[in-house]
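In the current project phase, the collection of sequences with tokenised folds has grown. A sample record is quoted in full directly below:
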Amino acid sequence: MNKQKIAVPTQISGKRSNHFGHCQQFTLVELENNVVRSISFLENPPHPTKGCMQPVALLKANQVDSIIVGGMGANPFKRFSEIGISVFFADHKQFPDVQSVIDSLLAGKLVPMAAQQLCEGSGKCHQHHGKV
């Protein structure tokens, strides 16, 4: 039996968040044999200065296997890798909502996040500034 828990950074409105560290919540999608078994929500604590490691620890504590983001800095990306949480990139324009992200993941259309897709800090993400 193949089980996975996927986190998608979202706002309370249900829209995907542009950056995982600043999202209001994580939509947690539990998959079993590539079928959605449950959906739940996990509140993301406020983001203090240099606070991107808090959500990393929060997701690890909640047994998340993968996160699908549209933006992330190098330090949390490295930390996710160290603790065994896979990071996938999904452009917000191409994948605007949680359903399209999960459908694309299940179809094998999402790839692991690459270094050139990382944010430079202070909200300067390559994909947000047309550098990808």
Observations:
- The domain at 3-128 is CATH 3.30.420.130 (Nucleotidyltransferase; domain 5).
- The chain is about 20% helix and 25% strand.
- The two ends are 37 Å apart (CA to CA).
- The first helix runs from residue 53 to 61.
